[in-house]
Specification:
With 352 residues, this protein is mainly β. Helix content is 5%, strand content 52%. It has one helix spanning 3-20, and strands at 32-38, 44-52, 55-62, 64-70, 75-80, 85-90, 96-100, 104-108, 114-119, 130-131, 137-143, 146-152, 159-163, 168-173, 179-183, 186-190, 196-200, 207-211, 214-220, 224-228, 234-239, 244-250, 253-258, 264-268, 274-279, 284-289, 295-299, 303-307, 313-318, 328-329, 335-339, 343-349.
């Protein structure tokens, strides 16, 4: 090659390098000034933390107990338990509904007093508790070889159960009057008289989601996402590119995490319009929303990633600990996080 040809080639490479060196969008630092660990009077923390009106309840496994924390994270009361708490659900009066094996459910007051023991012996495969607008709680479970809807009413917490005619996949509260259940035969609603009615016959639906306080429900299968009104009749059906991992209400519609080698977060308006899609880290534990409207996704490896409503990544943070439970919001901003080694980690909001 001549000197002139070599100069031209070098110039071309220089131009190509200049073109490839485009500015990379800078991901901002996470908006947390401190990350600290709470020392609790227990050797093992379970992945259950409930936000109460004036503090928190934290379930401990060894020894089994419930620790009530004030908003400043000081210990207010400790309630010994007979078994490891599997789930905590905040009640409207500040008490906590505790569920543990084998089917025991009871209420613990903020002063640590255990009351209102509601025991469903032989309960297997219980779903999470879902709350309706009137304060009633619903979950599905197997008892004595049959599927039941277990119901706990508002204070004084009267309990009852209703036999479900079919095997149930999920349960959710649709509104103040009805509990909605997804079965292999379709979508059922429990009316005020305690009777089930089939409101939609849908095939292969495996996940049912509320719409975050709006009337209606979302149905999710391995291939599609459908929106329906309170009557359960689908109005919009969307095809999904891959099987979903979870679905959750979003402030502007609904969000679905699609599984696969590169998990993808997609958001839709309730009319089916695609708003955004983003690639997220693997091992997601489910989303939370901060006070700016950003969706924060935590992974089991302790990676927190925030996405704006437009799907753009706002910031990413490595906690350096495996996470074993969802983020629990603090009233002044920030989060509580259950971790595998250090117990409860505190993220305080503020400039890093």
């Amino acid at each position: 090659m001549s000197r002139g040809g070599l100069a031209c080639a070098l110039a071309a490479l220089s131009c190509a390098g200049a073109l490839s060196a485009q500015p990379v969008p800078r991901i901002a630092a996470a908006p947390y000034r401190t990350v600290r660990v709470i020392t609790l009077p227990g050797s093992t923390v379970t992945p259950v933390i409930a936000r109460l009106g004036g503090g928190y309840a934290v379930g401990l496994a060894a020894p089994p107990q419930l620790v009530f924390l004030r908003d400043d994270l000081s210990v207010e009361a400790i309630a010994p338990l007979e078994a490891r708490p599997d789930s905590l659900t905040a009640r409207a009066d500040g008490a906590v509904l505790v569920s543990s094996e084998p089917g025991a459910t009871f209420t613990v007051a903020p002063d640590g007093t255990v009351r209102d023991a509601l025991t469903w012996r032989g309960t297997r495969n219980p779903s999470a508790w879902f709350s309706s607008d009137d304060g009633s709680l619903y979950r599905s479970a197997i008892q004595e070889g049959r599927f039941y809807l277990q119901v706990i009413g508002p204070a004084p917490y009267a309990q009852r159960r209703v036999a479900i005619p079919y095997s149930t996949a999920t349960v959710t509260a649709v509104d103040a009057r009805r509990a909605g259940l997804m079965t292999r035969w379709g979508y059922l609603c429990l009316d005020t008289a305690g009777r089930f009615q089939v409101v939609a016959s849908l095939a292969r639906v495996r996940v049912l989601s509320s719409l975050g306080g709006r009337d209606g429900v979302a149905f999710l299968s391995d291939e599609s996402l459908a929106f329906a009104g309170p009557d359960g009749v689908p109005t919009v059906t969307l095809r999904l590119a891959s099987p979903p991992a979870w679905v959750t209400p979003a402030p502007d519609g609904i969000a679905v995490l699609l599984g696969g080698a590169s998990p993808t977060l997609v958001r839709y308006d309730l009319d089916g319009t695609l708003r955004s899609q983003s690639t997220v880290p693997a091992g997601s534990l489910g989303p939370r929303y901060d006070r700016t409207g950003a969706m924060i996704i935590a992974t089991n490896r302790g990676i927190l990633t925030a996405f704006g409503p437009d799907g753009a990544e706002r910031w990413r943070m490595n906690l350096g600990e495996d996470v074993i439970g969802p983020l629990v919001p603090r009233p002044e901003g920030g989060w509580l996080v259950s971790t595998a080694r250090n117990g409860v980690m505190v993220l305080d909001e503020g400039a890093p």
